[in-house]
């Protein structure tokens, strides 16, 4: 079953590569409970099939970086990029795209979270295994308020501009 507007996000864990050690977060990959991360926050979440892939790197992530201040001005606490990659790859992608500190790059290494959302996809024919469908969502205190799922490999509704317009 696919998650829909009005549903609460399922329990799950996502990992983030922490660049600077702080109290409670060591340097390197750290695992977080999604329910803890979303508590009391408004999150602009988007998911991509893979870090460093062409559309994801040239359009999807850059759009959210470019519009980050506008999201903040409309009450969004955090922007998340989720992908079925490991935290090391997500950290490297964030550094490469200069997203560190702007967008949280969260790894769903085994696709458990996107499977729980019902938004996983089989990219086996491309040698990539199970990945995430391309989508965006607005999450408010753990509840899905907007959901934009791309169809057939397109990049039309999950971009930053669409989600930003839905906040108006």
From TrEMBL:
Transmembrane segments: none annotated. It is an enzyme of class 1 (oxidoreductase). It catalyses: a hydroperoxide + 2 glutathione = an alcohol + glutathione disulfide + H2O. Residues 3-168 form the Thioredoxin domain. Keywords: Antioxidant, Oxidoreductase, Peroxidase, Redox-active center. Its EC number is 1.11.1.27. InterPro entries: PRX5-like (IPR037944), Redoxin (IPR013740), Thioredoxin-like_sf (IPR036249), Thioredoxin_domain (IPR013766). The active site is at 56 (cysteine sulfenic acid (-soh) intermediate). The keyword Metal-binding does not apply. It holds the Pfam family Redoxin. Thiol-specific peroxidase that catalyzes the reduction of hydrogen peroxide and organic hydroperoxides to water and alcohols, respectively. Plays a role in cell protection against oxidative stress by detoxifying peroxides. Belongs to the peroxiredoxin family. Prx5 subfamily. PANTHER family: PEROXIREDOXIN, PEROXIREDOXIN-5, MITOCHONDRIAL. This is Glutathione-dependent peroxiredoxin. It comes from Collimonas fungivorans (strain Ter331).
